[in-house]
Every structure is written in C-alpha cells, then in structure tokens.
Amino acid sequence: xxxxxxxxxxxxxxxxxxxxxxxxxxxxxxxxxxxxxxxxxxxxxxxxxxxxxxxxxxxxxxxxxxxxxxxxxxxxxxxxxxxxxxxxxxxxxxxxxxxxxxxxxxxxxxxxxxxxxxxxxxxxxxxxxxxxxxxxxxxxxxxxxxxxxxxxxxxxxxxxxxxxxxxxxxxxxxxxxxxxxxxxxxxxxxxxxxxxxxxxxxxxxxxxxxxxxxxxxxxxxxxxxxxxxxxxxxxxxxxxxxxxxxxxxxxxxxxxxxxxxxxxxxxxxxxxxxxxxxxxxxxxxxxxxxxxxxxxxxxxxxxxxxxxxxxxxxxxxxxxxxxxxxxxxxxxxxxxxxxxxxxxxxxxxxxxxxxxxxxxxxxxxxxxxxxxxxxxxxxxxxxxxxxxxxxxxxxxxxxxxxxxxxxxxxxxxxxxxxxxxxxxxxxxxxxxxxxxxxxxxxxxxxxxxxxxxxxxxxxxxxxxxxxxxxxxxxxxxxxxxxxxxxxxxx
Length: 490
Known about the structure:
By secondary structure, this protein is mainly alpha-helical. The protein is built from 26 helices and no strands. About 40% of the residues are buried.
C-alpha cells in the first residue's frame, strides 16, 4: 500500500495551503496498485513541480500499468495541464508504454483545454507507436471541436479519418451524427445525413439520431417528418424510435400530446420498456403532475417492468423540485428496501434537495452515507454543498468540506475554487483575503487559469490591508499562468 500523503488542502481555515517537500519515496510497488493508490498518486502528482515530477517518474519503481495510468488521468480530469504533463513525462519511461485508451484520455483532456496543437501531436504519436488513432479517437476530437463552436472543422476532421489510417463505416458515421445532434447542430447533421446516407447505408439508428436531435431542440414536428422519411426508405421504426418521439413531446412541454402518443403505443401493442415509462414519469413530474407520475410509476411495476436506478433518479428529482424533499427521501428509502443500489446521481439529487431547503446537516449525513455505501461522491456533490454553505455565510463549514476533497476523496475543479474565493469577499474579514490568496496560488499550481478580475480583486484587497509581500506572490502566480501582471508599486 502507498504511504499516506501530506495534505495540500486546508487543515485550518486560516492557512489553507501547506508547503512540503514531496516525492515518490515509499511509493514503490511490486504489484498492480489499487484504486486508493491511484487516488494517492494523483494527489502527489498535483503537488510536485515539473522538475520534481520528472525526477520521480524516472527514478521510482511504481508498477505502472495502462489501467493505473487511465485511473490517474481520470482523477486529473479537472487538472488538464498537469494531466498532460504527467502523460508526456511517463511516455519516456523505459519499461511502460501507453495504451490506445490512455492516448484517447490524454487527447480528450487536451481537446477540452482547446489545445489542438497537443491534440494532433498526440494523434501523430499514436500512429508512430501503431496504437491508433481509432474511431473513438476521432469521436472524441470531433465532439470537442463541435462543443468549442467549430462544427465545420469537426466535419473536415470526420471526412479526413482515412488520411490517418482510420476507416470510416456506418458506426463512425452514426457516432458523428450523434455528436452534432447532441451539440444542438441538428441542421448541419441533417444536411450531412442527406448527402452521405446512401454512401454509408443509413440504418434505423441513423434516423433515430436525427429525430432525437430535433427533439432536443423541441422541434417535434420535424422529428415526425424524419420518422416518415425512415418509413418511406423501407425501414421499420423500433421501440427506440417511439421512445425518442415520446421524449420529444414531454421535453417540449407537450404533455397532452405525449400522453396521447403513449396511449397510441399501448393501442398498437408496442412492447414498452423501462425507458418508455421513465420518460412518462419524468415528463409528468416536470409538469408538476406528481399524482399522475406516481400512477404511471405504479402501473409500470404492476406490468412487471422493473424500474431502473435511472427511473428512481428521475422520480426522486421531480419530487424534490415539484413536490417536497421528504417525499423524495421516502422513495429513496423504498428504493433501498427493494435492493437497488443508488448511484452518485441519486445521492446528488437528494443532497441538492436538502441543501435547497436549508437542511445542511442532513445533506452532510447523506454525503457520509455515500461513503458508507461505497458510492464515491463526485465534484458536483461537493460543489453543491460548498456553494450552499457559502450562500448561507457558513464559510468555515465550506472550507471543511473542501478539506475533505483534498484528502483524496475527490479533486476540486475550477468552479470549486471560484465559489470559495468569491465567498471570501462576502464575509469581509481580514484573514479571509489571505485564504483567498492561498486558494488562488493553489489553483494556479494545479493548472487552472483564474480570470484577471479574480487576480486584481485579491491584489487590491491585499494591498489595502498591508499585505504587500503576499501580493508579490500573487503577481508571480499571475505571470506564471500567462496573465500580464499590472504595474504596481509594492
């Protein structure tokens, strides 16, 4: 097992960051490391500067495996620059070789940072090592281009797959259509579909993707037109097709039309599944028709269609939003009694509901319950609690929750830091400016780039309170992350 790591995060609200000399010493393993080891290594990687990280990766005896590296990259998901640095340095290791999956993780992280130069350098290295690129690689790249507002570039990348030794097929075509549609670029997807549908022999899945794209934009009539086109092409609609249209009605707020479509499916004796019923339960719930949602939920069970965890999540969510949290918790307990295992989404919905009505202590109990049930809290779980504590002025309690993140349970992201730093200015205590400054430095050290407004706000506060020496550290951090330092007389 790995030795416990020194904690970087806040032990005392007044001194959030402790500076310690760290290394991979005592991290030697001769067997594949566990999930806990991956978490500990991730935290240590975050704390090491580039030179120390290079030295430790070269001279330690950690048993590196693709699985371990993938877990570390996932842990470092919200710390992109550090993740890429770790990936690049480990590539020089004498005995370890990156897998295609690890390359895909690194490409996804780089593309998320919009560091396209690194993306294509990684693709070139994949080819050189003959581990790719593969269709999944291109799905990642095109998705990131689309989300960055570059759909035309995404189309060009998709059409150039063969130039990189990756063959296009119906599956890759459908994947790309799905990327465009889920990014609300359905018209571009539909135009591409019309041009290429014969080349790739579009199937029911292709039509379903386009129909779903229009439904996401609440354009149900267009989705129905796509359904008619599918039938005219000789393809039979599937249950998935009908579920897409059903969801489209409810998403557009057309509850009456959705209910009539559901009844028509019954009359035609369509073999409905848990997705069908979950859609209707959630649709009625969002519309505030809780009693109707419960009736459909009970009908589903009566027909022998077992609810999924997703069904319970949808039902609990609408109870929290449209009914009351106590009723949602009753359904949560009912779920447990029936042998279901809640996931992070289930807990997050309940925790958010409790926070919203001011029951923070109970929300913390559910956070602890997650750990007891071996359900790992995610960054959204912590951010919700931290945000609500800050909104209530309970800054010290929010810092204690933040400290739990630093203990390896879950790594903070940009939102976590922004919420805490903003809260420091709300309480107007002199010591809070020091905490905000130390959070800012930690933020920069972890690869995040704060807004210039955040830098200037903290600098002004430190100067006004006579903390010139610490203001100089902030200026150094500002220059490190590429923000031009202001000309200040310190």
